[in-house]
Every structure is written in C-alpha cells, then in structure tokens.
Amino acid sequence: MAGLDLFSIALIGVAAFAAGAVNSVAGGGTFFSFPALLAVGVPPVVANASNSVALWPGSLAGAWAFRRELKRFSKSLPMLSIVAFIGGIAGGLLLLATSNAAFSKLIPWLLLVATVLFAFSAQISALVRRWKPTPSGADERHIGPGGFIFQLVVSIYGGFFGAGMGILMIAALAIQGFKDVHEINALKNWLSAIIYSVAVATFVVANAVSWPHTLVMIVTATIGGYWGAAVARKVPAIWLRRFIIGVGGVLTIYYFGKTL
C-alpha cells in the first residue's frame, strides 16, 4: 500500500471535507472521497472500508447540526433508528452474497430511480394524498407502517452500497409527504450514521481499514459535515432541492458510464 506523504494528506483531506459537506446536504460524498483514496494508491477493498469509516462521524456531525429539526420526530425516531440498524445489517449480508458483476449493473438503475423519485416527489405526494388524504388534525411528521417499510428498503440499500444512499433516503422521505428540506436532511443524516455504524463495525473487526488514511479523512469529513449542514440551513430550499437533483444526476451518469 502506498505511503502517506504530504500530497496524499492534502488530496484525501480536501476530498473527505467535500464528501462530508455533500453528505450532510444531499448525499453522494463517496463520489469525492473513494476516488481520492484510489488515486493515492489504496487498494479498492481497503479504500471502500476506509471510506465508510471516515464518513461515519461526518453523518453524526450533520445530524447534530440539525438536532433542532431532529427533535420534531421524537415519536418516530426510535423505531426509525431500529429499522435503519436492521436494514444496514441485512444490506451488508446481501452484499456478501452478490457478485461484483451483478452489483455493478444495479447501481446506476438504483440511482436513476432515486433521483427521478426525488425530482417528482411533490407530484407523487399529491397523488398519494388524493388517494389517501391525511386526517384533519393529524401530525404531519407522523410516519406510518408504510413509511417504516419504505425506510427499511432504503436502509438495506445503504448497507448494500453507500453511494447514493442519501439520495434514496431523501427521495423516500419526500414521497412520504415531508416538505421541509432541513427536516429531511436531519432524518437522513441520523439514519445514515446508524447504517454506517454497521459497516464500520464490520470493517474494523475484519481489519480492512487503512488507519493512517482514515484518521486524516475522519477529521476533515467531520468538519465538512458540520459546515455543510450549517450552510445548508442558509440556502433557499429551491436551490438546495436543485443541488440534490444535480448530485443525483451526476452520480447516475457516472455509474452508467462505468458499466459501458
């Protein structure tokens, strides 16, 4: 494995900062950090493990920055957290049973569906409400059985492969009728951190982490995660929404290109 010189520190440090910031806003930070690890000579499997460990604290930092919004889901959060944990474990086991070739072919289609769902989430939510209106006086932040099942599916995907997990989670929450982008980000960051926890425990126990690279990235990704969440609150919702759709589009095109 390549050594850690000043150029490598600078490259993976900046990439991890960008990844932490992007993950706290929309997801897709792996698009920055994973290639940076490969560029400095870290083997792919170790790079994937190290990247997951490095971005885990960034998700926690992003969730902490949105803690005010997260408190609004006090009734649903415990069950959502359990669902995310179970889904993360199931996704990890599914990954172990899937061939690399089959997995590579699935990624761009999953990202395409997630991006389209988010882009048209308002229209889909309107159709859902027309079919099943919300009772008068009901808590708009209440998550029903269907929402938990939807989140379980997203969590399984997150444990299966982290890239694009944020886009999928945002799409899932938006389709359930959540309108406040900051509240969606708060839930997404917290649940992503839980799913990452499963991967982190697995990779650490398996001794598949390059700690010199990972420690550099943990610091900068965590700073980036908190900074990104703080900046996101000041950005108009329409621009934040466009940015999220843009990230989803770039990821989709990138992974479709890799399958050619």
UniProtKB/TrEMBL annotation:
It is a multi-pass membrane protein. InterPro entries: TM_pro_TauE-like, TSUP. GO terms for cellular component: plasma membrane. This is Probable membrane transporter protein. Keywords: Cell membrane, Membrane, Transmembrane, Transmembrane helix, Transport. Pfam families: TauE (PF01925). It comes from Thauera propionica. Belongs to the 4-toluene sulfonate uptake permease (TSUP) (TC 2.A.102) family. Signal peptide: none annotated. The chain crosses the membrane at residues 77-97, 109-128, 148-175, 187-209, 215-232, 239-257. It is found in: Cell membrane.
